[in-house]
Amino acid sequence: MDGQKLGIEKRRRGMVESVRRGVSMRQTAVKFGVAHSTVEFWVRRAANRRLDRVDWSGRPPGRRHPVNRTSREMEDLLLAVRLELRSTSDLGEFGAEAIHRELLARKVENPPAVRTINRVLDRRGALDGRKRVRRPAPPRGWYLPHVAHQKAELDSFDFVEGLVIQGGPQVAVLTAISLHGGLAASWPMTQTTSRRVVEALTAHWSAVGRPAYAQFDNDTRFQGPHHHPDTIGRVTRLCLSLGVVPVFAPPREQGFQACIENFNGRWQAKVWARFHHDSLADLEDQSARYIAASRRRSAVRIEAAPERRPFPKRWRLNLQAQPRGRIIYLRRISETGSLTLLGHAFHVDPAWAHRLVRAQVDLTTATISFYSLRRRTPSEQELLKTVKHKVPHRPFRE
């Protein structure tokens, strides 16, 4: 090993000697089989010094150890004091601050600062704190197996509210975007009713096709009134009539609406805040141009997304028909293992308290199935319980 090291140093010295004899750096690099930058580095390193006084080892210039580095004896003392405090301290404290106080009490000369003690403990592997484990994020739509495996598409819908046109009306924007394809849509409007939502969804799906799932928050314009049990709203009935499974995100939970909320932020920045809108028609025109550009940019992604089903011909919405199909509610179980759904309390599993479940309401078989959900293990969705529950058929009030 020493012979190899001496050979390397001899080659470096030979390169500098070659340049000093008048050979160009490029020719020297070719002769010694090294890069031009290597020759340049050693010539600069040697400068005008005698070759027998140049350090050819390749070690960075300067001292091997910093002048202010904590000595080995002091590091050993810090570890010994920490071990002693851990077993004898009345306060039960043996961290960096406690060690620093003990060194001052012992009148140790020039004790290290608290930050230095922390660095020493970290370098010597004496810290007990556990570092946060960064786990990979679950796949998109992980709470719906078919969506997570990209076998089905999901459209998310939401409202952007509180927008006021100068000298004009207050407006809101119904927004939509597909999870896998990024297929965007928007509908500025002055009246945000469930009837307008149904009109927008019908026009959208008739133009681009139906997804397998449609996701909403728990707004009454999407879900329906909350003051009567077993209420199925207008938008839910539209989805069931078209064979689209409505999915309602859990209240006050982060992440489930991230896709549509991200798009809402982009729409507000690129359409609403970027231009001055004189009227609702002006806003609709600018929004339509943005949506068209967004779809052109996402054309490849939209094409690669799960296939959307064609809109049925001669279809008409019958709000008085008995709803059939599935409705999915994402909910978090209480400390007693229960949750409230459709205005009723259901006891699911006390062992799954404070955790998420997917409540799958099957109106055809009159059952509700509860599946466990965990972001850490998204593929494991165990069936916790199935209960019988029949939603009574009541006339829908227009």
Describe this structure in a few short sentences:
By secondary structure, this protein is of the alpha/beta class. It is 36% helix and 17% strand.
Walk me through what this model shows.
With 398 residues, this protein is an alpha/beta fold. Among the domains are: 52 residues; 52 residues. The protein contains 13 helices and eleven strands. It has a nine-stranded mixed sheet with strand order 3-2-1-4-5-6-9-10-11, sandwiched between helices. A two-stranded antiparallel ribbon has the order 7-8. Strand 9 and strand 10 form a beta hairpin. The longest helix has 19 residues. It is elongated and about 100 Å long. It starts with a helix and ends in a 10-residue tail after the last strand. The model has no long low-confidence stretch (mean pLDDT 91).
Which descriptors apply to this entry?
398 residues; 9-stranded mixed beta sheet; two-stranded antiparallel ribbon; 13 helices; alpha/beta
- Principal-axes geometry comes out as elongated
Q: Radius of gyration from the CA trace? A: 35 Å
**SS strand fraction:** 15-25%
Overall SS class: alpha/beta
Strand order of the largest sheet: 3-2-1-4-5-6-9-10-11
Proportion of residues in helical segments: 25-40%
Residue ranges: pLDDT <50 for 5 or more in a row?
none
Number of DSSP E strands: 11
Number of DSSP helical runs: 13
The main sheet comes to: 9 strands, mixed
Oligomer: single chain
The topology string of helices and strands comes to HHHHHHHEEEHEHHEHHHEEEEEE
Compute the average pLDDT: 91
Report how far apart the termini are.
90 Å
